[in-house]
Structures are given as C-alpha cells and as structure tokens.
Design goal:
This protein is of the alpha+beta class and 181 residues long. The protein has seven helices and five strands, in the order H-H-H-H-E-H-E-E-H-H-E-E.
C-alpha cells in the first residue's frame, strides 16, 4: 500500500520523505498475505480487549507520550532505551490501531520548558465524547503559553539564543534557550 504510493513519487518528493517511513514502506514488501491477515486479526482482538474497559469507564486518560519532547527533526529519541520505532509512544499507537478516538490536550511544560500532553481516549465511535472532554478540560484549565512560563524557567540563566513565540494575538520575541542547554 504505502510502497506503491512512494513508487509514484518523483525523486525530489522521495528525498523529503522521512527515512523511517521509507523503511516501513520497504518492509511491506516482505509481508505475506497470511502475515497481513494475522496482523489484522490481532488488531481486532486488541480492539475488543481495550473496548472492555469502556464498559465500565467512559474515558481513559493517559500521558500523550512516555517521555519529554525531543529536538525538532528527530524521528525518535536518541536513546538505547528507545530504539527507532514506536517504543516511546506506548500510549498513542494502540488507539490508532484499534480505531478508538483520542485527543491530546496541552497541560503544561517540564522544568526544562518542554511541552507535556494529556491524552483522552474514548470507545470506538465515541468521538464526540472525546472532543467534549477535551474542550471541557481546556475550558477549566486554559493552556498557558510558553512566554508565561519563560521567565520562571530562565530565572538565573543567561540567554543563549533568540526565538519568537506567539502570545495570544501578539508575537513576542525573547532571548534565551528553552531547552536547558
């Protein structure tokens, strides 16, 4: 499927496709029809298993990801603990597989200034409930932009770079590093 799509790309288009996605597409070539059907069966079983929790609970709340954000441009964290792939996203991909609706809402920043998210998951076909819960959370706990947190994070540190962030309808310029470097 994906491999066929990539084959239709021009060399210039393929050059900007993420390496991990290209590798996944190439791996498709090695999957037999029986293996593919077995994967679909496993996906269905996982969906049924996770769906059982929604008989008792309307929503499941999890962190969006299991680690703090990493540098823009990285496909996965640079760590021996998390080899390339989905190992660092145990709270998101299962719900994509099982077709359960999920929303991620920002809930703040780490002490290093990196974003943290809360994932809200519902039963299959309960998209409206998930969106209502996400909106309710955002209404009760409005997200504070980084510029509101910036001075607290930078207290006592010397600025090392310049960046721009949005604050409501105004663009604010700051000198400083938010990564803790």
């Amino acid at each position: 499927m994906l491999l066929n799509e990539l084959r239709s790309f021009t060399p210039e288009q393929r050059a900007v496709v993420e390496e991990g996605l290209q590798a996944s597409a190439e791996a498709e070539n090695q999957v037999t029809l029986a293996e593919y059907q077995s994967t679909l069966d496993a996906r269905e079983a996982l969906g049924q298993h996770l769906g059982l929790s929604h008989q008792k609970y309307d929503l499941l709340l999890t962190p969006t990801v299991s680690i703090a954000a990493f540098s823009v441009g990285q496909v996965s964290p640079k760590s021996d603990l998390y080899p390339p792939g989905l190992n660092w996203t145990p709270f998101t991909y299962p719900f994509n597989l099982t077709q359960q609706p999920a929303a991620s809402v920002p809930i703040g920043f780490t002490t290093e200034g990196l974003p943290v998210g809360l994932q809200i998951v519902g039963a299959k076909y309960r998209d409206a409930l998930v969106l209502q819960a996400a909106r309710a959370y955002e209404t009760v706990n409005p997200f504070k932009t980084l510029d509101e947190t910036f001075l607290r994070l930078m207290n006592g540190r010397s600025p090392s770079s310049q960046f721009r962030i949005m604050s409501g309808s105004q663009q604010v310029a700051h000198n400083g590093s938010i990564s803790g470097d």
